[in-house]
Amino acid sequence: MDNTRIQKINRLIQKELGDIFQRETAKMRGTLVSVSSVRTSPDLSVARVHLSVFPSEQGTEIVANVNANEHAIRYDLAQRVRH
User: Distance between CA 69 and CA 60 in Å, rounded?
Assistant: First the structure.
């Protein structure tokens, strides 16, 4: 598949996930979660998302929360990027 297309998809996923995390962490004062990078497989079946959490002391808690809510995050992302 064309490398340019994969890069565009990576940027789109990064932007939309960043918006989702920004909206969700606005409720938690003093916490910032950003999407540092997204890497998608050539067949677009798997996407690896790398998160950056500030303050880092809350990193394990935030990552555990993200993993627990994986299905809801996927659904929100799908609703945003489907068109």
Answer: 14
Residues 6+ apart with CB under 8 A from 73: 17, 20, 66
Predicted structure pTM score: 0.86
Token pair 């297309």: residue: 5
- Amino acid at the residue 76: D
Cis ω before 55 (30° cut-off from 0): yes
Contact 47, 41 (CB under 8 A): yes
Give the model confidence (pLDDT) of 12-68 as tens digits: 999 999 999 888 888 878 888 899 999 999 998 999 999 998 888 888 888 898 899
Instruction: Enumerate residues 6+ apart whose C-beta is below 8 A from 1.
Output: 42, 43, 44
